Amino acid sequence: MSTLAIVGAGPQLGRAIGRRFAAEGVDVALIARSRTTLQAVADDLSDTGVRAEAFPADVTDRPALHAALTAAEERLGPIDILEYSPAPSLADLRRAPLVEATKVTVDSVLTQLDLYLLGGVAAVQHVLPGMLERGTGTILVSSGAGSGPVIAPQVANVQIATGGMRNWILNLHAALSGTGVYAAHVAIAAFIGQGGHDSQPQTMADAYWRLHTERTEAELVIQDLPDDYLERGLADKFVES
After folding, report:
1. Are 68 and 123 in contact (CB under 8 A)?
2. Continuous segment of H or E residues that includes residue 82
3. DSSP 163
4. What is the rounded distance in angstroms from the CA atom of residue 220 to the CA atom of residue 237?
5. 184 with 211: CB under 8 angstroms?
6. Cβ within 8 Å of residue 32, ≥6 positions away
7. How many domains does the chain contain in total?
8. Which strand ranges, in their side-by-side order, compose the sheet holding 181-189?
9. Domain of 96?
10. Residue 43 above 50 pLDDT?
11. From CA 167, how far away is CA 88, in angstroms rounded?
């Protein structure tokens, strides 16, 4: 029985990825800040026949993240698959706003580095030694496609951080060749759950499963943005009504 850890598990893509992997008999560890959200996702997976458990932690709190991953391993066994896809909350965006390319400052970038790049490094380095020792494992790291394939100047401070994360994962993919461990980056150019077929969480979760099983691509770009995406701005979940 394999174990998947979803770091940044939420009610849309995280839930869909959990269900897709659970359908293949994979146990699921759910890690994010909100115990309420995590428990709702865990409850949703209760009919799949696998173990799905919540391990609350903030990825910017490195000891807490380490403790959550350790607890997941103790409860569910070694983490064979890591999916890392943190996202800011509205409170995060009020505290550390998105910044347009001409207005980027050092301080505006530091918070984003903490969430995306440094949190990702911490999560990966927790599971990678065990994967290498066992000679098998999958690491899937997700970000908005502004990390490289798509230009989004209105969120430049985020893209500096996710661009660094993307570059590292692409290099990690190359470095892991021949080890039995596979790493890939998923660049999401979509308003999840709001666009066409390719934007739907279940469709995207199927793509994650293909990455895990086929283990060939260094990067998957999910492209389903409307033509006016620059004018449209943030996905609805990040916009206060």
Report:
1. no
2. strand 81-84
3. H
4. 23
5. yes
6. 7, 8, 9, 10, 14, 38, 56, 57, 86
7. 1
8. 52-54, 27-31, 3-7, 81-84, 137-144, 181-189, 219-223
9. 3-238
10. yes
11. 21
Tokens representing 174 are: 């190359």
């409860």: which residue's tokens? 75
Q: Tokens 């869909």 label which residue? A: 16
DSSP letter (8 states) at residue 200? S
CA 56 – CA 64 distance, rounded (Å): 8
Which two three-digit tokens encode residue 137?
A: 């494992």
| Residue-level pLDDT at 238 | 40
Select from 114, 122, 120, 219 the least CA-distant residue to 157: 114
Q: Which residues pair with 3 in a beta bridge?
A: 27
User: Which residue is it, tokens 């490289």?
Assistant: 148
Residue 199 region by backbone torsions, left for phi larger than 0, else alpha for psi between -120 and 50, else beta: alpha
Please give the average per-residue pLDDT across 163-180, as a whole number: 97
Report the SS3 class of residue 33.
coil
* Interval 220-234: pLDDT, tens: 999 887 655 555 555
Contact 99, 156 (CB under 8 A): yes
Task: Note the pTM of the prediction, 2 decimals.
Answer: 0.91
CA distance 159 to 147: 5
Task: Quickly tell me which residue has 């389903």 as its tokens.
Answer: 224
Exposed, middle or buried by CB within 10 Å (0-12, 13-18, 19+), for 60?
A: middle
Read off the CATH number of the domain in which 141 is found.
Answer: 3.40.50.720
Residues with Cβ < 8 Å from 147, sequence gap 6 or more?
159, 162, 163, 165, 166, 185, 187
